[in-house]
Specification:
This protein has one domain: B-lactam Antibiotic, Isopenicillin N Synthase, Chain (Jelly Rolls), CATH 2.60.120.330. The protein is 32% helix and 18% strand. It is built from 9 helices and 13 strands. A hairpin with a 4-residue loop joins β7 and β8. The structure holds 2-oxoglutaric acid and fe (ii) ion (FE2). The site of 2-oxoglutaric acid (AKG) has 11 residues, from β4, β6, β10 and β11.
Length: 320
């Protein structure tokens, strides 16, 4: 039997108790070494916002097909497409939204990866409420992602300046809503690792998310916990840590045929930040396994691997 990823209480992050904070770091370090995946309680995203963001998807689902037609384009922050991680495709629909930036923003003008105005669906009921929920969720989830990253970097001896320069520009953060159809197909989202630094995933109570236990090579259920979010460490963490912190395979299967809603929030940091192995993670006699790359180079490559395009990264999505 595979082991389920740990459930960690984030309360000490917001408190003064140093011993509790060290204990938190230890728990997160172990989860990253072992799984690259954990559930987090008391993370700081208000319950009503969690409910609101999940509800906003349900409200918009009848318009999804229309939005799929409307919102095609390159990966630029207002994209929408059905992701494909296997030749047969995935059983899901999703749309990407990022920080909503005006056309005269310097990053948009400089055509930085994934920067631009969002395209909010106008077909939903109460579009302004819908937009506010999405934008609020984006800003709260960004803050929580940064908090989680700051603990992660502490566990690596990365230090404040490192964290500041990666995370202070909070640009390429994506909210992606997944809306699988109601059919008895097994695969919903094929096995993959996430590309960026950390993902904060909100899932409803349907279940179906599974993570690979690397020791037993079995899939284990990530049981939905109503007050917890799932955190997974992305590929960038492996670059920083010379593969010490894993970016684990996960997938979503269709156990019941019921619709499932989830909100993965990808935090990828400053597009210009050069990701290279931390000196503290290179053991004596060994070398860095990943060539240094900027965040945008890495992300563009990973998206090209996944969706097609000219730029290539090193890792492919796998079908399991
Ligand atoms: O919907 C889920 O539970 C997982 C989504 C996911 O893994 C992803 O979008 O990268
Ligand atoms: Fe994922």
């Amino acid at each position: 039997m595979g082991r389920a990823p740990p459930v960690i209480d984030f309360t000490p992050f917001y408190g003064e108790d140093k011993a509790a904070r060290s204990q938190l770091e230890e728990e997160i370090r172990n989860a990253c070494l072992d799984f690259g995946f954990f559930q987090l309680r008391n993370h700081g995203i208000p319950e009503d916002l969690q409910r609101g963001i999940l509800r906003s998807q349900m409200k918009s689902k009848t318009n999804t097909t229309k939005m799929l037609v409307n919102l095609t384009a390159a990966m630029n922050g207002y994209d929408l497409r059905t992701l494909k991680s296997s030749p047969k495709g995935d059983l899901k629909e999703g749309y990407f939204l990022a920080q909503d930036l005006p056309l005269d923003d310097p990053y948009v003008k400089a055509r930085k990866w994934a920067q631009g105005p969002n395209k909010y669906p106008s077909e939903v009921k109460e579009p302004s409420t819908w937009k506010k929920t999405v934008d609020d969720y984006h800003s709260v989830a960004s803050r929580v992602a940064k908090n989680v990253l700051s603990v992660l970097f502490d566990t690596l001896g990365g230090g404040m300046s490192f964290w500041m320069s990666f995370a202070s520009i909070q640009l390429p953060c994506f909210v992606c809503f997944i809306i699988p159809h109601r059919t008895p197909m097994l695969r919903r989202i094929g096995a993959h690792t996430d590309f960026g630094a950390v993902t904060i995933l909100l899932q409803d109570s349907t279940g179906g998310l599974q993570v690979r236990d690397r020791k037993t090579e079995e899939w284990v259920d990530v049981e939905p916990i109503s007050d917890a979010v799932v955190i997974n460490t992305g590929n960038l963490m492996m670059c920083w840590t010379n593969d010490r912190y894993v970016s684990n395979l996960h997938r979503v299967i269709n156990k019941t045929g019921a619709e499932r809603y989830s909100v993965p929030f990808f935090f990828d940091g400053n597009p210009d930040f050069l990701v290279k192995c931390l000196a503290s993670c290179i053991e004596e006699g060994s070398v860095a396994k990943h060539a240094p790359l900027t965040v945008s180079e890495w992300m563009e490559g990973r998206y090209a691997d996944t969706f097609g395009g000219s730029k290539k990264a090193t890792k492919e999505m796998v079908e399991v």
